[in-house]
Amino acid sequence: MSASHYVEVARAFQARGDAPAWLQAFREEGLSRFQARGLPTSKDEEWKYTPVATLSSHPFQPVSNVSAGDDVAQAVARLALPGPRLVFVDGRFVPALSVLSGLPRGVVLKPLSQALREDGVLLQETLGQFSRPSAHAFTSLNAALLEEGALLTLAPRALSEVPVQLLFLARGGDGPVLASPRIVVVAGEGSEATLVETYAGLGTGATFTNAVTEVSLGDNASLRHFKLQTEGDSALHLGGLYSRQGRDSRFQSHAFSFGGLLARNEVHAAFAGEGGECVLNGLFVGRGTQHLDNRTDLDHAVPHCSSRELYKGVLDDRARGTFHGKIRVREDAQKTDASQQSRNLLLSEGAQVDARPQLEIFADDVKCAHGTAVGRLDDNALFYLRSRGIPKVDAERMLTQAFASELVRAVPEGPVRARVEALLAEKLPGTAEVMG
User: 116 falls in which pLDDT band (50, 70, 90)?
Assistant: First the structure.
């Protein structure tokens, strides 16, 4: 499909005229930006290694309603974490399977459709503030179709010890389905929370998830953000995470990308106050003909901030992955401490990876480093394990687990780590034994 298809979809959506003036203006601006940019092509440097033709392979359409049958209930029972959650199917909120009890004082979670009616002032001040400046065509399309998602707000010094989960299930319907969730997180001064975005597939229908998450961290606020992406073999997934950190704030992003025919995860993080800390971790595991893209853009705009970035890829069969990361240290950002690493493991001759860590440094009193490595399983280690009677496939699995375990151990012990371990076990070669 050409860009004109999505323009028609967005125009039909906006023609309903059921939105307040500010929201309608926001949607129209998104559509205008989308039309101006058009769909990316392989000639665009930012999309050079993404098979963009796949993104226009079907006439994807949003759905107006969904039915939550036994397949949805079973998936929720399997994927839900203890604690509060919102459940969505093909981009539509399912209240019957959502849980809003157990939220501590000062923590508010609601579907975006409700927040658009009740929190217009807050959303006018927040929506698009971080994503708009660097928006590409699909971020703009998300704005043009803005309707559903989630709003999580934390009052100053509010503490949420139990993870908050957003569970997005892609099922597909009579035709190819487009979902455009927007997640907005506003964390007040000194607050702390953990947010888990889970994207999973149901059935074999063609689905396209185009998600945008915007995070605003107040001074001394802390957020752990986990993204678990395990959609089906026919699924397309684009996700953009945009964060802005206040003074002495702490932000962690842990992205685990295991599913989809094509999945592209972007993280755009910026420091707006001194003393901030940022951790960007990612693990992508592909097989078959999967294509898994990962892009990060970390902006050190102020002094005395630190960042640590580690992405690992494991690719088998004819899968392809990319990691393109950029750390920008601006002229006034003295005393910056930044590190970026990309490490990749190829399990077959047909697997490919393209890794490009970058540093742009305009300050002189900084400590910055980056590096990349691409390799295969160590023959000596493999021989050692096989010489002790361990079958080849199990030996390969053990070594691959060891390679990935650094990022799994970065997740605190508890239900989130257990879920990551289970999802990873399903992707590794050999038996389905869960990591110990």
Answer: very high
0.70 exceeded by the pTM? Answer: yes
- Angstrom distance (rounded) from CA 55 to CA 173: 18
Cα–Cα distances in angstroms (integers) from residue 143 to residues 13, 72, 99, in the given order:
12, 27, 27
The pLDDT value recorded for residue 134 is 65
Q: Is residue 150 part of a domain?
A: yes
Encoded tokens for 219:
């001074």
Residue with tokens 């699909």: 138
pLDDT exceeds cutoff 60 at 51: yes
* Residue written as token pair 């503030």: 129
Residue 434 has pLDDT above 70, yes or no: no
Domain boundary among the residues 216, 242, 273 is at 273
Q: 135 by DSSP, 3-state: which?
A: coil
Q: What is the pLDDT of residues 347-390, one digit of tens each?
A: 999 999 999 999 999 999 999 999 999 999 888 888 888 888 88
Other C-beta atoms lying within 10 Å of the C-beta of residue 152 = 24
Give me the phi and psi of 283, to 5 degrees please.
Answer: -135, 125
Question: Is residue 228 situated within a structural domain?
Answer: yes
Distance of alpha carbon 389 from alpha carbon 391, whole angstroms:
6
Beta strands in 31-99 (DSSP E): 85-89, 92-93
Domain count across the chain: 2
Q: Evaluate whether residue 338 is within a structural domain.
A: no
Query: How far is 178 from 169, CA to CA, in rounded Å?
Result: 12
Q: Which domain holds residue 269?
A: 3-273
Residue after which a domain boundary falls, among 250, 273, 296: 273
Domain assignment of residue 358, yes or no: no
Alpha carbons 5 and 161: distance in angstroms, whole number: 44
